[in-house]
Write a structure and sequence with these properties.
Blueprint: H1 11-21, H2 27-34, H3 43-50, E1 67-76, E2 81-90, E3 97-103, H4 111-122, E4 126-130, H5 143-150, H6 155-171, E5 175-184, H7 186-198, E6 204-208, E7 225-230, H8 234-237, H9 240-249, E8 254-259, H10 276-294
Parallel strand pairs: 3-4, 3-5, 5-6, 6-7, 7-8
Antiparallel strand pairs: 1-2, 2-4
């Protein structure tokens, strides 16, 4: 399939797709709404073209000689009992390394998120990407099914699973005890939640277009944060000014970036919403941020 860019679509259509992705409308409603954009193609063709194509996402091959990967199960007594995840470490690591938890969108541990974990492995971090869908069989290999399963998992328990994953990573004998967290969409919101819940046990957090925590909870945040937003993602970015005010009021250490022309999901290189220039800039900033706060 030919790779399209966000600029190939009317923004109103991308916004409609965003509502679909986040469960605010079903597929039928999206298709009905997409019919008015006949100049772009049929409603079904539009839907197919906007869905993830994981062949585009592999920046680091699964068998890359620079890393070692495996699936591990982490105990989560306060959550769903246990959670499975994808663990990546540099192949030639000597001594202890900092860790980074990688938290997926509202679809589970898909190939894009696994690739993000491998990217961190090549940057000399331990990376663990838990699958919030573990209790319902794990990521099913299909975005539609993943979204449906995601809605069936107990969200408070899933949050506890991610906290358990972070603490497990932090306590590993090959970890320095300094960990960061990076997450996207739903996962970005979880990074903010981890910052609230873990206090100084989290050493750095980078939420990409994540829902902001309640202002009353911001005082609990001790980790330096780097907030990444798309300017066209008004649904999420609209909450940034108030969040920034709360961070300032509580003397938090943070950096915030709003990328012009970028949509929600601009870092996800499997869909047309991917913005290569902004994604690469945001990722380089992320790696620099983790190097600064996790290796000091």
């Amino acid at each position: 399939m030919e790779r399209k860019k966000a600029s190939d679509y009317p923004q109103e259509l991308l916004n409609l797709f965003d509502h679909y992705v986040h469960g605010e409308i079903d597929r039928r409603s999206f298709l009905d709404g997409a019919k008015k954009f006949a100049s772009v193609g049929s409603a079904t063709a539009i839907w197919e073209s906007l869905r993830p194509n994981y062949a585009w996402a592999q920046q680091v091959p699964k068998d890359d000689s620079r890393i070692k990967t495996e699936y591990l199960t982490v105990p989560s007594p306060q959550g769903n009992g246990s959670i499975k995840g994808y663990f990546v470490r540099p192949a030639n690591a000597t001594g202890k390394l900092p860790g980074v938890l990688v938290i997926h969108e509202n679809r589970g541990l898909n190939p894009y998120i696994e690739d993000v974990a491998r990217r961190l492995g090549t940057a000399n971090f331990l990376a663990f990407a838990p699958d919030g869908l573990t209790t319902v069989g794990g990521y099913p290999g299909d975005e539609e099914k993943g979204a449906a399963l995601f809605g069936t998992v107990d969200k408070p328990k899933m949050t506890e699973d991610f906290i358990a994953s972070a603490r497990w990573l932090k306590a590993r004998p090959d970890c320095t005890g300094k960990i960061g967290a990076v997450g996207f969409c739903f996962g970005g919101g979880i990074v903010n939640t981890l910052a609230v819940r873990m206090g100084s046990d989290l050493s750095a957090g980078v939420p990409f277009y994540g829902a902001q925590p309640p202002a009353a909870d911001v005082a609990k945040i001790k980790a330096p944060l780097m907030l990444q937003y798309g300017a066209l993602d008004t649904r999420i970015t609209g909450g940034w000014p108030a969040f920034e005010e709360a961070l300032k009021a509580n003397h938090a250490t943070y950096q915030g970036f709003v990328y012009e022309g970028a949509n929600h999901g601009f870092h996800n290189d499997t869909t047309p919403r991917y913005d290569e220039a902004n994604a690469k800039l945001a990722w380089q900033r992320t790696i620099d941020f983790f190097n600064k706060y996790l290796r000091a």
